[in-house]
Write a structure and sequence with these properties.
Layout: E1 10-14, H1 17-20, H2 42-47, H3 68-82, E2 86-90, H4 93-96, H5 107-122, E3 126-132, H6 138-144, H7 152-167, E4 173-177, H8 187-190, H9 202-227, E5 232-244, H10 249-271, H11 277-284, H12 295-301, E6 306-317, E7 325-327, E8 330-332, H13 349-363, E9 367-371, H14 389-407, E10 412-418, E11 438-440, E12 452-454, H15 456-466
Parallel strand pairs: 1-2, 1-10, 2-3, 3-4, 4-5, 5-6, 6-9, 9-10
Antiparallel strand pairs: 7-8, 11-12
Helix pairs in contact: 3-5, 7-9, 9-12, 13-14
GO molecular function: 6-phospho-beta-glucosidase activity
Enzyme class: hydrolase
Keywords: Glycosidase, Hydrolase
């Protein structure tokens, strides 16, 4: 058995437009939904979603982020120095169609991504491009109430057609919606609609939005295959693994129920049809999905080529009981066998191996881990070094788990660690929750030089890639 990773394994990192680019009104861009979200505690940040931007009284971290829009050449050169074979980025919909309903796209926005992809290709870095990463044009979200309204689909279709035709020779690996299953626990980000679990229309809005987005994703897959014959479309799942808290059969059933809430989206996009278990779930929760003529055929005929997923932590499920906590924006019960980060996220590399086996057993299509990492507060030493051994340890354990899963027989395309350069936290808007191999001198209120500094993990990951994982396996 080969102890090393394959030569064609796609090592690299991942960022998103709203968490890295900044320049939120530059070159014709208009605000997205994320641009209305302030920096602050979880619920305060989400409560600002879709509201008017008040620059006098709030700080909006996406507006400047880490200024990747103006510094991308410097950052791509650093990624190339580490030996990246792939980089996951997202296109900001509002750079291409600022309001979302324009007849013609914004040429300056299109040109930015042309330049970005050209810079990546210069260093032989393969672009992996997310079409929508939690940022919808604010104008469309205000007008239609987010993805619960089917009127969103034609605007998304036009956007997809535009970027596929423009970048067909530069981008071959695409992802439709970032962590599409996130709409079940944070509809604000996942479906651009202000619906919470406490909302009386939560189930109806969420699963009608889910259907609309699943149809839109199938349209994107169809367009991708037509316009880019050698292109591949992947779905992107927030990788959630939920153990039963005990061996009580009631807890086991609760675990199955909770895991299905996440698998549902992959079941449709990878298999091409609604799973049988949805019938009872919809009936018991009074959900009526607006399935129109041709929808089911579209889903059946346009399944995704691979399954991309994120993985950070795991939770447990109980049939009854109190004491649930939040980790990675998901509510569940603590696992006494696992340690937690400062933000309440468990470290569970074995869970990654289990999840990868589960996903591959279920779908038998290639997997691609496109988000994984440790958010932590890094300190710069007097000599300018940043010793993030805790991050190295976390990543090492998870890379080892990937290799174990691959040895189990799981076909795996690559590993793109999240926030390969420090960026804005999605959940809190903080900069102090850092993931990167590269430190960016910006604080939680946007103050700093924006200068970049290599951490200890920079050289470590460089050696991982150079040796095909040989330095840690």
């Amino acid at each position: 058995m080969n102890k090393l990773f394959p030569k064609d394994f796609l090592w690299g990192g991942a960022i998103s437009a709203s968490q890295a680019e900044g320049a939120y009104l530059d070159d014709g861009k208009l605000p997205s939904t994320v641009d209305t979200m302030i920096s602050g505690p979880y619920m305060e940040r989400f409560a600002s979603f879709g509201k008017d931007i008040d620059l006098d009284n709030n700080y909006y971290p996406s507006h400047n982020a880490i200024d990747f829009y103006h510094r991308y050449k410097e950052d791509i050169a650093l990624f190339a120095e580490m030996g990246f074979k792939a980089l996951r980025v997202s296109i900001a919909w509002t750079r291409i169609y600022p309001r979302g309903d324009e007849n013609a796209p914004n040429e300056k926005g299109l040109q930015f991504y042309d330049d970005l992809f050209d810079e990546m290709k210069k260093y032989n870095i393969e672009p992996v491009v997310t079409i929508v990463h939690y940022d919808t044009p604010l104008y469309l979200a205000d007008k239609y109430g987010g993805w619960k309204n089917r009127e969103m689909i034609p605007y998304f279709e036009k956007y997809c057609k535009t970027i596929f035709e423009r970048y067909k020779d530069k981008v071959k690996l695409w992802l439709n919606f970032n962590e599409i299953n996130s709409m079940t626990f944070m509809g604000i980000l996942g479906a651009s609609m202000p619906v919470f679990r406490s909302s009386p229309d939560y189930f109806q809005s969420t699963y009608n939005a889910a259907h609309n987005m699943l149809v839109a994703a199938a349209i994107a897959t169809k367009l991708c295959h037509e316009i880019i014959p050698d292109g591949q479309m992947g779905m992107m799942l927030a990788g959630q693994l939920i153990y039963a808290a005990t061996c009580d059969p009631a807890d086991e059933w609760q675990s199955l129920y909770e895991n299905r809430r996440h698998y549902f989206f992959a079941d449709v996009m990878m298999r091409g049809h609604y799973p049988a278990y949805t019938k009872r779930f919809y009936e018991e929760n009074n959900i009526t999905v607006d399935i129109q003529d041709g929808d089911l055929e579209l889903l059946s005929e346009n399944t995704c080529d691979f399954l991309a997923f994120s993985y950070y932590s795991t939770m447990t499920a109980k049939a009854q009981g109190e004491g649930a906590s939040i980790g990675n924006m998901v509510t569940g019960f603590d696992n006494p066998y696992l340690k937690k980060s400062e933000w309440g996220w468990t470290t569970d590399p074995t869970g990654l191996r289990i999840l990868m086996n589960n996903l591959y057993d279920r779908y038998e299509k290639p997997l691609f881990l496109v988000e994984n990492g440790l958010g932590a507060k890094d300190e710069i030493n007097e000599d300018g070094t940043i010793n993030d051994d805790y991050r190295i340890d976390y990543l090492k354990q998870h890379i080892e788990a990937i290799k174990e899963a691959m040895d189990d027989g799981v076909e795996t395309m690559g590993y793109l660690s999240w926030g390969c350069i420090d960026l804005v936290s999605c959940s809190s808007g903080e900069m102090s929750k850092r993931y990167g191999y590269i430190y960016v001198d910006v604080d939680d209120q946007g103050n700093g030089t924006f200068n970049r500094y290599k951490k200890k993990s920079f050289d470590w990951y460089k050696e991982v890639i150079k040796t095909d994982g040989g330095n840690i396996l």
